[in-house]
Each structure stands twice: as structure tokens, then as C-alpha cells.
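Late entry, evening session. Most of the bench is empty. Finally got around to the prediction I had been postponing all week. Sequence below, unchanged from the version circulated by S.P.
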Amino acid sequence: MNLLVKHDDWLSQRLEDPLFAAEFIMAAVEDDDPATYLTALRKVVEAHGGMGNLASKTSLSRETLYRTLSDNGNPTLRTLDSILRALGMRLSVEPVTFDRN
């Protein structure tokens, strides 16, 4: 009996959970490199049926989605909103607290 699970398989299964997926994306936002965020978002999209499924839920083509979510992608706010809503999420803003010491 093999009890080992590939990391990518485990992650994909966990990303099907909307709360886990949202936390995963929020953690990626903390990185200064936008490619990290786009990679995380791409992994969530893959866990939710892939680009074709996402294209059918948005007004975006698969080609646009692949380009937008590539490491060099530069999505507009409207595109991000459309993608996140199709995944059952939304954008939000929160204040940043700074240590004043």
C-alpha cells in the first residue's frame, strides 16, 4: 500500500476548497513578485477545472486567460475581478498596520 501522495495532487485537492484557495492566494499576494500571485491564481484555476472551464464562466478566451495568468501577465482589475468571481471569490482591501517602533 502506497501512502505517499504527490505534492501537486495534494495541493490541487486542497485548492478545491474555497477557503483554502482564498488563503493560498492571499499568502501569494504577500510576496513582492507579481509572478507569485499569478502562479497561485493559475494553480487555483487548474484545481477548478482549468482554463477552458474558466473561459466558459467568464467573457475571456482561453488564450487571453493563459496570457493573463502567465508569469509575465499583467491583468487588469476587471480581468482579475472576472476570474475571481468565476472561482467564487472577490477582491477586497484591508489596511496594513506598520510597527511604529
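Two things to note before I forget:
The chain has a mean pLDDT of 92.
The longest helix spans residues 34-47.
Will write this up properly tomorrow.
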